[in-house]
Design a protein that fits this description.
The structure is a single chain. The protein is α+β, with helices and mostly antiparallel strands. It folds into 3 domains: 108 residues, Butyryl-Coa Dehydrogenase, subunit A, domain 1, CATH 1.10.540; 109 residues, Butyryl-CoA Dehydrogenase, subunit A, domain 2; 155 residues, Butyryl-CoA Dehydrogenase, subunit A, domain 3, CATH 1.20.140.10. 49% of the residues lie in helices and 14% in strands. It has 13 helices and 10 strands. The strands form 3 sheets. It has a 4-stranded mixed β-sheet. A 4-stranded antiparallel β-sheet has the order 2-3-7-6, with no helix packed on it. Strands 9-10 form a two-stranded antiparallel ribbon. A hairpin with a 2-residue loop joins strand 2 and strand 3. Helix 5 packs antiparallel against helix 7. It is globular and about 90 Å long. The two termini are 45 Å apart. The model has no long low-confidence stretch (mean pLDDT 94). Bound molecules: flavin-adenine dinucleotide (FAD). Flavin-adenine dinucleotide binds next to strand 1, strand 3, helix 11 and helix 12.
């Protein structure tokens, strides 16, 4: 009933990807390592190398596979996407080469789900073709993860919406052709109906990027790509609302599940690469007359990493399968929610543990920028916060299970052995005779 094999035709595609990512995408990582280089449409040298690689991906039918046919994409579903993303996760350039880079993936998903035919033609088409980059502008400097604290607002004036307020960590805003901005349109409404989503072309007057914040792993603190933006009476026509008035929360929610699971899938790839590095170092370096891999504490690091990676990989695949079942209508809406939360929490822990151990086994070389591990190590916290902090998901997951938990009837828990033994003896009074 449960089958972990991959069908041979698809395996051939994965084999092609494996070789292509190692040979071509990892080469891009070395040639163009600058922060944000993957998303910069004006980086002509990088674009010149990128285009032919994207063409090869398209020729293989592997381009932009995050959207399934029901949303107008070529995708094969989340299980196959999980296997693909494991390979893509090895390389920072690979998501762009394969047309599956965040935040464009999630943005494409909500444009496909909620966009009008005109919005799809103007924004989704070029986005899916890899011609433009987009940005999702939701988090606020004072509001963080809590939409209840959001103050950036939009008011209607004639046949326009006027957006006023600030957003924080709007990734890739400086490269984007358009921003998806969530703003309060009815402050009195309940939280889930308080906001609306707007498509804002980046050349609209009034958009002010205050700073481009850099994060761990970036090289230049003043040239990051997570924008702190002020919207100064930014005007968009009425037809630039995505979804209906008051549906902003619903639209935003629709993109977050996909983002979280895709990050989880790619985490498997990067952690597998870190594990491979750990193994190589363990059989290459000698200390105290033995190879590193002959020391038991190094063996423990390796074994713990293998187990954690396999456990997480299985969780991601099961979650991907649940999402596919929901989309096929065989499971109810929301049936994958808890598992997506588990992936979100688990990915940061796995990333921290496996990359951290690989770094430690490499010693000073590991923490140096001669190896990719130190940069990756900083990345685990970025993944812990992106798409909502890990703690929020941990808490939501626990609450979902607590809601279903049934209190014990009496003084003792249902598993209390003396109580259960008494009940068993009451059922079989002669059981212990003779
Ligand atoms: C690399 C990266 C890229 C990002 N890209 C984007 C983007 O493109 N667009 C965008 O809009 N945002 C983006 N973000 C922002 C991201 O969504 C926020 O970082 C996230 O929602 C958390 O908000 P905050 O950072 O303000 O943390 P806070 O909300 O201040 O949370 C800080 C800490 O407080 C605790 N906490 C907060 N809320 C709760 C709760 N309900 N229960 C328990 N504990 C809680 C947790 O420990 C949490 O880690 C990005 C972030 C990163 C790191």
């Amino acid at each position: 009933m449960i089958d972990f094999s991959v069908d041979p035709e698809f395996q051939k595609k994965l084999d092609w990807m494996n070789q292509f990512v190692r040979e071509e995408c990892e080469t891009m990582d070395l040639l163009f390592p600058e922060q944000g280089a993957q998303f910069d449409p004006n980086y002509t040298a990088a674009r010149r190398h990128l285009k032919p690689l994207q063409e090869q991906v398209k020729a293989q039918g592997l381009w932009a596979c995050h959207l399934g046919p029901h949303l107008g994409g070529p995708g094969y579903g989340q299980v196959k996407l999980a296997l693909m993303n494991e390979i893509i996760g090895r390389s920072p350039w690979a998501p762009v080469v394969f047309g599956t880079a965040a935040p464009d993936t999630g943005n494409a998903e909500i444009l496909a789900l909620f966009g009008t035919p005109d919005q799809k033609q103007r924004y989704l088409g070029p986005l899916m073709a890899g011609e433009i980059v987009s940005c999702f502008s939701m988090t606020e400097p004072q509001g963080g993860a809590d939409p209840g604290e959001f103050t950036c607002s939009a008011r209607r004036e004639g046949d326009e919406w006027v957006i006023e307020g600030e957003k924080w960590f709007s990734s890739n805003a400086k490269f984007a052709t358009f921003l998806l901005v969530i703003a309060v349109t009815d402050a009195e409404a309940k939280l889930t109906e308080r906001m609306s989503m707007f498509i804002v072309p980046t050349d609209t007057p009034g958009i002010e990027i205050l700073r481009n914040v850099a994060i761990a792993g970036d090289f230049d603190p003043e040239n990051g790509h997570h924008a702190h933006i002020r919207y100064n009476s930014v005007r968009v026509p009425l037809d630039h609302m995505l979804g209906n008035p008051g549906e902003g929360f619903k639209v935003a929610q629709a993109r977050l599940g996909g983002g979280r699971i895709h990050h989880a899938m790619r985490t498997v790839g990067i952690c597998q690469r870190a594990l491979d590095m750990m193994l190589e170092r363990a059989v290459s370096r000698r200390t105290r007359g033995r190879m590193l891999g002959d020391h038991q504490l190094v063996q423990a690091k390796i074994a713990d990493s293998i187990i954690a990676l396999e456990q997480f990989r299985l969780l991601v695949l099961k979650t991907a399968w649940l999402i596919d079942e929901v989309e096929a209508g065989r499971l109810p809406h929301g049936a994958a929610r808890n598992h997506i939360g588990m992936c979100k929490v688990g990915l940061a822990t796995l990333y921290h543990d496996v990359v951290g151990r690989a770094l430690e086994v490499h010693g000073s070389l590991g923490i140096s920028l001669d190896m990719p591990l130190a940069k990756w190590y900083g990345g685990h916290m970025a993944l812990a916060f992106a798409d909502g902090p890990t703690d929020v998901h941990r808490s939501q997951l626990a609450r979902a299970y607590l809601k279903k938990a049934v209190p014990a009837d009496g003084l003792f828990p249902r598993e209390h052995i003396p109580t259960r033994t008494a009940a068993a003896l009451a059922r079989y009074p002669d059981a212990r005779d003779g």
